[in-house]
């Protein structure tokens, strides 16, 4: 006679046990994070979940709540520096999918889609606007966090809305572009009020017409105007980026380590009279100007300098690299030295663009 196990004798779990097991099954213990950050620095996550759906995200967050763990959301890891092991739960966002919504040129992409893949997809579908943002590493979900930007365009320009999970209320809601409070490498999600939201997807309204933006000098010089095609812009941006920035697959880095500092026009003029010609860009706020951090660091002689295995890139003073075997602390100490030198030489505080974890 067949003998069927029953939950009463503990071979089949009860419903409550099943749900706890289900929650825990996607959670891995003690996961090495070196493959999950573009600096390639080692750090161990006490708990790690690969998130492929909203349900999985909810279950992982419930697991963290039960165990009173802190949670860190992670996309492609190209804008973070792990300075030590992480004692909480890392949620690695991998929700995929691109769909076309009603309305001309409206496309929605899930948070785990690759940004550059999305830009290429849109260009191939003749949906234009983001060609200048080609080849920026990372995920759709992280792109609004710092309002990614390059070559005169930023994400906010074509974003319609975000769908987010409010992790405190366990509800899904949307954020319009205005509610995101975008600024230069900034959004509400970088501030305390926005920390509770996990981006699930982003919708964009792109144009069937070519919208060339050649404000950036290097593009202006390289491309014909008028008559430039979206493909030419995309290819030129990719070519310039490849020639200027190290590929994280070959040399660990997170792009620009510091934001460009914003100072008052008075301070800028005083600095100019002391240090001579100093480049600047206008900002949206009157009376404030942006100074390229790369110029300040270059002037202070940082290009190519090293601190053990942490180094400043030979061609770009704003890019810190892991030249082999560096850990997060090595890179952080180098960044702190750089920042102090700019403070003492120019009286300007540099703020990291990279999130320190
Ligand atoms: C070589 C190189 C060049 C770069 N060039 C540029 C550039 O030109 N312009 C530019 O703006 N940036 C640039 N960056 C920085 C980086 O590509 C962007 O910041 C990118 O958006 C990070 O994406 P990610 O998925 O890797 O994010 P991660 O590094 O994984 O995370 C970054 C932040 O976003 C949060 N986050 C990630 N996913 C979500 C989500 N779904 N919901 C809520 N929060 C989330 C994380 O918690 C973290 O705070 C560059 C980086 C590299 C390595």
How many distinct folded domains? 3
**Structural class by helix and strand composition:** alpha+beta
Please give the number of β-strands. Answer: 20
Please give the largest β-sheet: 5 strands, antiparallel
Question: Any idea what the CATH architecture of the largest domain is?
Answer: 2-Layer Sandwich
Helix content: 25-40%
For the record, give the distance between the C-alpha atoms at the N and C termini, rounded to a whole number.
Answer: 58 Å
Radius of gyration, in Å, reads: 23 Å
Give unreliable regions as ranges.
Answer: 1-13
CATH class term of the largest domain:
Alpha Beta
CATH names the topology of the largest domain as Uridine Diphospho-n-acetylenolpyruvylglucosamine Reductase, domain 3
